[in-house]
Design a protein that fits this description.
Layout: H1 2-34, H2 39-67, H3 70-85, H4 94-108, H5 111-123, H6 130-154, H7 160-174, H8 189-196, H9 199-214, H10 216-228, H11 233-252, H12 254-260, H13 263-283, H14 287-295, H15 297-315, H16 321-348, H17 353-382
């Protein structure tokens, strides 16, 4: 019963975290666009947020595992990031927003990787059902983006700043109820490096990095791209919501999916679908083709994300679960998106937004080829192709 209550608590954290993300992801860059920022400035702001995610998710992860203070850091970062967000309400100056973003990112950085680590702890032997816990974040995301799109059409995109603050404060207040799950004893960094930086992990992290580089155009400029095509904020919200709806369907069936297919097969398939998705957005202008591309989010985010979490959890020693998830998060949603945002922001100034997605498609292909090629070579070495 106690474990079930912890599951509900973790589910509520996902619900609140992704509810706030449902405001931020589709609409914050659109807000920056409306207050006059250039494509490069928007890319720079997004990239800086990712840089801080890389640096500080790792730093906080090391501290959490080393001193067994994961819960304390999680609460601290939730509260501090929410309070720092207040400063966005008082400026539209690019340089001031850059400074605020740097400090905000320092404390926002570890929240999701810590939440993933809490999830793995609470699920125990039921880790393959992770998707059913995580889907509450997707449900929240859908509810927010649909309702907010209509609100922005009626009022102004600037309302997102107050809404993000309110959601963050609620999330921070509930974080106090997170259980203090003790992990094994203190960890030395040299064994950590040996266990987490072997060739299998490095290849995976590099390919996952490329996957998220390919997402830079989507997370950074998809809403702006749709507005440039003449679509309303309501349609933009529907498009984002459809992606999360598709994602929920695979998360509900996560247990069955991961009992049927190996993580390697799921990851390879995800790269293929990502390449297809971005290629569709390269030429898509009709509502139908855009919405079809959004359905593929079920794979490019849903199955890819779940497979990545389980893959890293499997490769991480018990004493380094938090750091393992932090490294994965830093390499992908940190470093990968940072490069993706910078690249997309630069290219946005020099070409039509549709071409950003063509480049994204090529990057996803590269990631898939490297990942599949490595596992084929490993299979040939071991004389076993059955898993591939």
């Amino acid at each position: 019963m106690l474990n079930n209550s912890f599951k509900y608590l973790i589910a509520s954290q996902y619900f609140l975290y992704f509810g706030v993300l449902g405001i931020f992801l589709p609409y914050f860059n659109l807000y920056c666009y409306h207050i006059g920022f250039t494509g490069f400035q928007i890319g720079a702001l997004s990239a800086l947020r990712s840089v801080t995610l890389v640096l500080f998710s790792l730093a906080w992860g090391v501290l959490a595992d080393r001193f067994q203070i994961r819960r304390s850091i999680y609460i601290l970062c939730n509260i501090t990031s929410a309070l720092i967000w207040i400063f966005y309400l008082f400026t539209e100056n690019f340089w001031l927003m850059l400074i605020i973003t740097a400090f905000y990112g320092m404390f926002y950085a570890p929240i999701i990787s810590f939440l993933e680590a809490f999830s793995m702890d609470v699920l125990g032997k039921e880790k393959k059902s992770y998707g059913r816990l995580r889907m509450w974040g997707s449900i929240s995301f859908i509810l927010v983006v649909i309702s907010l799109g209509k609100m922005i059409d009626l009022f102004s995109v600037s309302i997102i700043l107050v809404l993000i603050l309110a959601g963050s404060l609620v999330h921070a207040s509930i974080s106090f109820k997170i259980p203090d799950i003790k992990i094994a004893k203190k960890v030395l960094l040299s064994p950590v490096a040996k266990s987490l930086l072997n060739i299998r992990v490095i290849i995976f992290l590099f390919c996952a990095f490329l996957m998220l580089v390919s997402h830079g155009a989507y997370y950074g400029f998809f809403s702006i791209h749709l507005e440039n095509l003449g679509y309303t904020k309501t349609f933009i919200g529907i498009a984002w919501a459809l992606a999360s709806t598709a994602e929920i369907l695979v998360m509900i069936n996560s247990d069955r999916i991961f009992k049927t297919f190996s993580p390697e097969k799921i990851l390879t398939f995800s790269f293929i679908v990502a390449a297809l998705r971005w290629f569709i957005l390269f030429f898509a202008t009709s509502e139908t083709s855009i919405l079809i591309s959004q359905l593929l989010h079920a794979v490019t985010y849903g199955t890819f994300h779940m497979a990545s979490i389980l893959y890293i959890d499997f490769l991480s020693p018990d004493k380094n679960k938090t750091l393992g998830q932090a490294i994965n998060n830093a390499a992908t949603y940190g470093l990968g998106l940072m490069v993706g945002f910078f690249l997309s922001g630069y290219l946005y100034e020099n070409m039509d937004t549709s071409f950003l997605f063509l480049i994204s498609s090529l990057i996803a292909i590269a990631g898939g080829v490297i990942f599949k090629g490595f596992h084929l070579l490993q299979s040939l070495k071991n004389g076993d192709l059955s898993e591939h």
